[in-house]
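lol ok so funny story. i was supposed to be doing the assay writeup but got distracted and ended up predicting the structure for this chain instead. priorities right. anyway since i did it might as well share w the group, maybe its usefull for someone
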Amino acid sequence: MRIVHINLERSWRGGERQVLYLMEGLRRLGHDCHLIARRNEAFVSRVLERDFPVHVISKPYLKRGSLLSGFHVVHAHETRGLQVAAVWKYVNRSPLVFTRRVDNPPSGNPLTRFVYYRVDGMGVISRAIGQVMTAWGFDPCRIRVIPSAVQAAREPHMETVSRLRERFKGRKVVGCVASLEKRKDHRTLLKAASLIRGRRDDVDFVLVGGGALRPDLEEEARRLGLFNVSFEGYQDDPYSYYFIFDLFVLTSRQEGLGSAILDAFAYGVPVVATAAGGVPEIVRDEETGLLADIGDARGVAESILRILGDHDLRDRCVRRAGELANEGYSLDGMAMAYELLYREVIARG
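and the output, tada:
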């Protein structure tokens, strides 16, 4: 099959990484994949490095929709790309597949409903998103739960790891890799850090990720007197940090699944998370990690302290989380699931 993927995000985050994983997996299955993207050096350069054809477009995006013609399947990965693909479907006639990665419902306006009406098959990364979309009114017969994939732990950049280990020497490091945006709710994590400070003085919190909320969150940390919180900003290679994390924490209010959690599983880092969206599908309380309620800073703090103080619990969660990641979240498994979905939408005509 010839498949064109369209993703018009301007960043390199979990969704873009999953697009590249999928393209690589589909190529191993013998399919020809192309990408349509906006000017986005971080994303486009990685795709080009792997020898995929890339078509870089600029606004107005709708004028470039003819690039979607001549493929067996058009696969949109975010809302702008979906809008372009939906409009141009009248011309190219190719089946349209969309991946939904967020757990909030789309708006109910007529334009949005028109766009989603054009989708022939939808991949959702968690059951929770599938339930949201069904309640919104999308045909459940056209939904397939296809989780994000996790890549096996990479070899670390030892110079970076050594520098980080020296920097946090003798400390327990609680890490979070997430963009600094409202739905990730770093404020709850900062409140938990404040509660922990009164009970342990050997814990540092390392926040990896950039975003518009950084100044506000830094001010909040200063207000709480949290001098043990480090804002690392966006990191082109965040994986070295997993080698210094004693614990990974994600306190999201909304989360499709949590690919950074899957990374923690792959790197053998125990996880504490809030029960947002699809997170409970991978963080199974007392089994693959510990769960707290959304916005419950005290519950997050208690879970962090419990993991840090209970080696048996830590080891059990790490072992079972690793097994879960290996069994159900492989790159090839994701690619085969989408291959099946493509064949289904083509057969329906």
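The chain is about 45% helix and 15% strand. Residues 311-328 form the longest helix (18 residues).
back to the writeup now i swear
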